[in-house]
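notes to self, project folder thing:

trying the whole complex as one job this time. last attempt i did each chain seperately and stitching them together was a nightmare. two parts in total, labels are on each line so i dont mix them up again. if this works i'll redo the older ones the same way
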Amino acid sequence: MTVAAAAVRRLMPAGGRIPTNPFRMVERNVLVFRRSWWALPSGMVEPVVYLAGIGFGVGSLVGPVAVGGRAVDYAAFVAPALMASSAMNGAVTDSTFNLFFKLHYARLYDSILATPLGIADITLGEVLWALLRGLLYAASFLVAMAALGLVGSPWGVLALPGALLIGLAFAAIGCAATTFMRSMQDFDIVQIVLLPIFLFSATFFPTSIYPTPLRVVAEVSPLTRGVDLLRSFTTGDVGPHVAIDVVALLAWGGLGLVVAARRLEKLLLK
Amino acid sequence: MIATAPLHVVEHNALSFRRAWRGTLTGVVNPFLFLGAMGWGLGTLVSRHTGDVSGVDYLTFLAPGLLAATAMQTGTQAGMWPILGNVRWTRRYDAMLATPIGVDAIVLGEVAWITLRLLFFSTIFFVAMVAFGTVISPWGLIAVPAAALTGAAFMAPTAALGATVRDATAFHLIYRLGITPLFLLAGTFFPISQLPSALEVVAWLTPLFHGVELARDMTLGRPQLGADLLHALVLGALLTGGLLAARVTFRRNLLQ
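result (full assembly):
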């Protein structure tokens, strides 16, 4: 393995740290995805069900919530947050479960590294693929929201790139986390971490309800920033806080990518 | 079938569980997280706007619903991938069948083990419920076996299906198109009376609704003999039907 790895390194400029063609990775995933095409339509049913249950069902019990000084229907309050968390879930699923399987069981990346593709191509390619899927789901969610009258502002269109940004941040974090996992049991740690992130973001209620120490933690979480970003766009509550959200998500994503690339290199080129 | 054969299957699962117990920590931590976040956050919002739901504060209304719904999810998942894995991938059931254990014992043993797990984790959930002050009657203790019954009632028919499939495609579809809508719309988060009447009828027909209502009647201290017996019977019927179906499908897929 070390002989092959050394040969790969010699052939590649900068040892494969510069991506040359990540789109081959995406192409490969697209070709494989055609087999599980059913995931797309069924995945689009989910947001509608969540919107119905939480947005309107629980919403009938909750009444309007204040967003940026205005009162917003609970359904319109919760919907962008559900969109953000579904972007998160999609990105995390792809970057943890699928990545782990490919890495340790299918040994997919070993065979890919035997081609002129390098580590950076793989990392970037996988993240791009996760983003693409995220875009599809986010678009269907936004359409569902619009159909139910929950998009209160033309800014709402920007929720789409916003969801992509959330997907990027979590795909990168997920990839980084997966490189530390050693067995299928470690996936439960992912669930253990995701649930509090989900519950204690600003999804179901504004963070103003929290006591200060918990509120600080909640505000730093990438999901809270993502929820705030999408909610600002769909409710029209756009201001400087939107820039903060974008910067925070980029920072989380960047951190994840750096860690993931370094770890993958250690794992694959031993 | 030897009478003790299912117990051997249960024992096998218990021994395997010693390796896998870490994965179930979520089952211990989640109830506290959910009740904390929902009760506090959502509860505050609901009490500000609507006040009480069904005569009690929102968290007290929500908690037994979450108890039953969590049991449903655990039960359903236990009837999916583990069964598929044991039939097609690890072929554990083939190994069991090489011993004097028969197919019926495997089915019974698997369901019995799941019921034990459900009882354990439902108890933990119940403890969390008590800690958050949402159990307002000693009848509430019956909510624990009620939840376990709900979970088992979902596990048995799912396991019957799990023995027949070749990959997890059907599982994803069932989860997305069946379990998730049930979770959100069958009375856990809000009374089904909030649904449009046509949907309300559909919700009433679902097994989760009966599990939720049974658990809720108990923890709220409002037992109604007729209605609650009906709820339990519906769940029991689903469990029995599932067991019988599983016997058939396990036989067909394990014995050539």
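what i see at first glance: The interface with chain A takes residues 20, 22-26, 29-30, 33-34, 36-38, 40-42, 44-46, 48-50, 53, 58, 169, 172-173, 176-177, 180-181, 183-185, 189-190, 194-195 of chain B (CB under 8 Å).
need to look closer tmrw
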